[in-house]
Structures are given as C-alpha cells and as structure tokens.
Fold this protein.
Amino acid sequence: MATGDPDVFPSQDVKQSTKPLVKGMASPRKAKITLNAMKMLDPRHLKPDSMETDRIMNVLDETAAKLEMSSLIPRVIDSLDRFADMLGPEITKNLLELQELSMEMECLLASSGEETTKAEEQRGRLCFLEQSLKCSIRNVLRLFLANPSLLQALKPKAGVADSPAEVFVRAFGVFRNFMLERLLTSPVEEEGKIQFVADISLQIKKHAEAITALQAKLAAAIQTREDEISKKDNMIKDLKTRIQDLAKDSKISMQRIKEEGENQQKVELQASQSRCAGLQQDIEQLQRQLTTLVVEHRASELMLRKRKCRLEMEIWNWVQKYDTDMAEKQAEYEEVDAAYAEEKAQLSLLTEKHALLLQEYTQIEEERKMLREKEEEALKELTTKNRAAARIQALWKGYLVRRLYRPKKKKGKGKKGKKGKK
C-alpha cells in the first residue's frame, strides 16, 4: 500500500494535527501570513495614494477603454444593419465613412503590391487615407465616449472574438496592473517583496526536498503494490485455467443433455401427432354441429330482423312526431318570449315613469311640508302677536281707566283740605 494513503497513519490529537508533516514545510500560521502578504501585493487590493499616480492610472484606463472600443468597431461594422436602429443616424454615418475608408485603404495596399509604377502618387494617397482614417476613428470614438450606455449595450450583442485586438487589449490590462503595482510600491515595500520572494524560494527548496523523500517512499510503495499485483495475476491465471476446465466439462454435459433432449423430443412429437389426429376429428364433428346450428338459427334470425325493422320504423315515427312537437313548442316559446320582451320593455318604461313620478311626488311632499311649516310658523307668530296685542290693549285700557280715575281722587282731597282750613 502507498504510504501517502490517509488510512495508514495512526490517529493523532488536535495539537499534533497542526504541526507540519515534513520538516522544513511551512506551518499553517506561516501559510496564513504568506497568503495575507500575497493579498497585499495583489494589484486589485492597491489604491492610488498620490495625484500623479491617479493621473497616470486615469490615462491608462482611458486608453484601455478606447482600445476596447476600437476592437468593438469592426464587429459593429460587420453587423451594421442589425445595429443601425440602436446606433442612430450620426454614428451609422461615421461608421459607413470609416468602412469606406478601410476598404479603399485595403484596395490601395493590394494594388501597391502588384504595380510598381506611380509609387509616389500611391504613397501620397496612402498618407492622405491614413490621416482621414485616423480622423474618422477619432470621431467614432468621440461619439461612443459621449454615449457610454450605448457601448455597454453593444458589448453583449456584438459578441467576443478571439482576435489579435482582443489579445492586445488583455495584454494592455496586464500592463496596467503591472504599472499600478510598480507605482504603488515604495522602496521599503520593494525590499520586503524581495525578501518575501527569497523566503518563498527557500520554502520551495525545502518543499522540493520533502517531495523527493515522499517520492522515494512512493516508489517503494509502488514496488510493493506491483509485487502484490503480480501475485494476484498468478492467481488470476490459475482461475482462468480452472474456468477453461469447467468450460470443457460443461460442453460435454451440454452435449449429453442435447442428445437426451432430442430423444425426448421424438417421443413427444409422436404423442403430439396422435393428439392432433384426435383433435382434428373433434374439429370435424364440431364443424358439422356448427352447420346444423346455423341452419336452425337462420329462421329465428330472419324473424328478429323483421322485428328490428318494425321497431326502427316505430322509432323513426316517434322521432318525427317529437320533432314536430318540438317545432310547435319552439314557435310557441318564441311567441311567449317576444311577448315577454315587449312586456319587459313596457315594464322598464313604466318603471322609469314611476321613478320620475316618485321624484316629483317627493318634491311636492317636501314643498307641502315646507308650506305647512311656514303656515304653522305664521300661525304661531300670529297667535303670539294676538296675545301680545291683547295684553297691550289690556294694559292700555287699565292705564286709561287708572288715568281717568286718578284726577277725581285728587279733587276730593282738595275740597277736604279747604274745609279743614275754614
């Protein structure tokens, strides 16, 4: 068995399981520190800490975005009819101009390789096309940069092609991460990184020695396993020999069984032939009985057929009568339904009139109620005024009577005074 198999090692406690298996290998704690150091050196965990670094990274990011857009433009031009509605007229026009300039440039380059005359004219034309192509690409990039949402929508629809441009864009991304790492690494960190790499190299050397020792153990285990396999191969050969012997014995026994089966088949064939002859006689007898029964039952079948025809005629007459009755009922139903519809229409008109009359009656009742209330109020007011007038008249009469009798009393008193003086 291999020594690296986990079932060979004895069970250990938790404290021993944390120790390295081979001398020179890093402990789990050191491995954790190493992983943390690797995460710190990873460019994805670094952030710009100065304005110059930020500017450089912005330039690199903008360049990467432009490169990605430049690699996307050929795929958009190839499927310009599909993306025309999404791009709009202005971008589509610029892309068509770029396509025409590219085709003209390709034709000119192809012709320059074939013809050697007029080389200066072709060179001047090539320079002019190159400048025009650059200006057209700048215009297209400007339009794409002004509409970033359009670029994000085009990426999944245009697809990803493993072209040299895509390879260059990925290489530029690697270069950008390398530049970020170099810009954000101070001299002290650089020395620490060098020391870290030296420690890693030392650990790799120790691990290689440990691997060599384990490989030696593995070779010994493999040799032991091969010895066991050779023993098992010998055992398999013996078993195959036994199986061949068993096959020969079984073949002989099968031959014997086959002969016995053939003899038994002949005996059973003779017996089956005699049974078939008896069954054939029974079949002929039953055939004669069937013929007799067919002749006997034909008369009853004819009578039953006549009865069936008579019943079918009766059923047909009943069906015709049912159809006639149903037609009459249908006509009667339609008349009743028409009368019902007419009465329903009259009922709706009467209901509307009743609603109007009820509304008018309600208004008249309210007006009558208001008039009654006004009359009652007027009557109460008149009663109050009459009572007040009666009281005022009674008071006035009393006042007049008192006024009428008051001077006489004063005159009587004067006469009595004069008499007294006399």
